[in-house]
Write a structure and sequence with these properties.
The complex is a heterodimer of chains A (259) and B (253). Chain A is mainly alpha-helical. Chain A contains ten helices and no strands. In chain B, the strands form two sheets. Chain B has a six-stranded mixed sheet with strand order 6-7-8-3-9-10, sandwiched between helices. Classes of the chains: A mainly alpha (259), B alpha/beta (253).
Chain lengths: 259, 253
């Protein structure tokens, strides 16, 4: 069992390495063909150099730290706020109906479109960026909380009530655990909205952070730095989703016996 | 002594804007320690009646009395065992069994002691640490029964709990159910559409009419226990019940 799992992993790693090699190969080929000027499309080696550069002067690590710090704070506020609104929507049915159409509209609202509003309302600062992150992810948490609870098979709630659960004990011991598998999906989606939002907001509103590094690259026409930041953003997004959120979802699904 | 009494229970449902009467005035008295089976054509409202007794649905008319006092809401004095088991997939078997005790605020050590006893009785000890998706349907129903018994309910309500089981497992549980009843002396109300099952379990079998349903006839089964499904002496009771049931099922088709 364990050995098989190890082999599977090796397979995955080999596939990923092959994919990466082909990708870099094509990139190098396009570079050599000289379709774009070198300043617009640098070679993989130049980008690696830029990488080494922003790593060695700590720009990259500081940027990652600041961005993730903001993201975590904003995202946790989103979860708390979104869950609270979602619970209120369950409790007050009329509010729930209105709010669910309202949230659906705001869910598809582009995060970047919050930026001008946030700059004027709050300012060109950390709080302004947090505001954009929260507004971009809170509604996904709200809707998923609301629908997760509404879609709980009624038989679980009936059984729990029948065994004496009511009020808070019903909520904690039946409602929340029964809704957990789909709540996790909502959290994963909310995280991806928050991640989109923070990079956008940092490009436009920040003087530090990953988005800012990207934006500086553009200003100095340093395509190496632009691509290096993009790769970083891609990698962090991938790692958080695969290693953290996806794993969590898998774990919950297997525990709950779903697939 | 009368443990449970249903007085003129009526229930209506909305069906495409029309009012549909499911229960047309159910009257039933169940003595303390009695084992009563409810049979009837499918869709006649036996399950609805059980949910009303459990307090999970409200009747539109009439009332349910437990020890002479009207039942207002659901609660652990009348535990319902669902057809699907309704076990909680997020809990291990042992935590499922202890759920009601935990809700009641019973301390951990006492909970373990009680649950251990019933896990043992239902032959589940080996599976205490399993999650429910790892169990067969028959095992799940054992857990559901254990989860009900730990709460020592006044009345045990069972809604076709063995309907989804294969024949062998069902026969086994039907015998076990009789032993449990003899050991615990619980008052049991058991809904089934299976006449053979009803004659094996019940001291009394109440036959429901088609919708709007009432209780058409109660048949007393005064026969030794434990009864097994192969016992041919049960067939005369089965014929008696089927004779009552047949016109109802026909009217239903």
């Amino acid at each position: 069992m364990k050995i098989k799992k190890l082999f599977l992993n090796l397979d995955d790693v080999a596939n990923a390495a092959l994919f990466l090699a082909v990708f870099i190969g094509i990139w190098q080929l396009v570079f050599v063909l000289g379709i774009w000027p070198k300043i617009s499309l640098p070679s993989p080696a130049t980008v690696a150099e830029s990488f080494a550069n922003i790593i060695s002067n700590y720009t990259l690590f500081k940027g990652i730290g600041i961005t993730l710090g903001r993201l975590v704070v904003g995202f946790f506020i989103s979860i708390a706020l979104g869950a609270a609104i979602g619970f209120a929507m369950i409790k007050f049915k009329g509010f729930g109906k209105t709010m669910s159409s309202f949230s659906a509209g705001l869910l598809s609202f582009p995060s970047i479109a919050w930026v001008p509003f946030s700059i004027l309302l709050i300012g060109f600062n950390d709080a302004g960026i947090l505001f954009v992150v929260i507004m971009s992810s809170v509604f996904s948490i709200t809707i998923s909380t609301y629908s997760s609870i509404r879609n709980i098979p009624p038989i679980y709630i009936d059984a729990a009530k029948n065994m004496g659960a009511k009020g808070l004990s019903l909520f904690l011991h039946a409602t929340i655990p029964a809704a957990t598998p789909s709540l996790i999906i909502g959290i994963r989606q909310g995280w991806s909205f928050a991640w989109h939002a923070i990079i956008g907001a940092e490009i436009l509103m920040s003087i530090v952070g990953l988005g800012h590094i990207l934006s500086v690259g553009r200003e100095f026409q340093d395509m190496g730095q632009v691509i290096a930041s993009m790769i970083t953003i891609f990698t962090i997004g991938l790692l958080v989703d695969r290693l953290l959120l996806f794993k969590l979802e898998e774990k919950v699904r297997s525990r709950w016996g779903i697939e | 002594m009368t443990k449970l009494e249903a007085k003129n229970i009526e229930k209506y449902f909305d069906h495409d804007g029309q009012k549909l009467q499911a229960l047309g005035g159910i009257n039933l008295k169940v003595n303390d320690g009695d084992f009563v089976c409810l049979v009837g054509p499918s869709g006649c409202g036996k399950s609805t009646f059980l949910r009303i007794v459990a307090g999970l649905d409200r009747p539109d008319n009439g009332e349910v009395l437990l020890d002479g006092k009207p039942v207002i809401e659901t609660g652990p004095d009348r535990i319902l065992v669902f057809q699907e088991g309704a076990l909680f997939p997020w809990l291990k078997v042992i935590d499922n069994v202890e759920f009601g005790l935990k809700i009641a605020g019973i301390p951990k050590s006492e909970r373990s002691e009680i649950s251990k006893r019933y896990l043992d009785m239902m032959q589940l000890t080996r599976f205490a640490e399993s999650y429910t998706y790892q169990l067969s349907t028959g095992m799940k129903q054992r857990v559901a029964i254990a989860r009900a018994l730990v709460l020592d309910p006044d009345v045990l309500l069972m809604d076709e709990p063995f309907a989804a089981l294969d024949a062998q497992t069902r026969d086994l549980l039907l015998v076990e159910m009789q032993l449990i009843w003899e050991r615990t002396k619980k008052t049991i109300l058991f809904v089934t559409h299976n006449v053979a099952e009803a004659t094996m379990l019940g001291n009394r079998v109440a036959v429901f009419t088609n919708r709007p349903s009432t209780i058409k006839k109660e048949i007393v089964i005064d026969y030794r226990r434990p009864r097994i499904s192969e016992d041919e002496n049960l067939s005369k009771y089965q014929q008696q019940i089927l004779a009552e049931l047949r016109p109802e099922v026909k009217a239903n088709v």
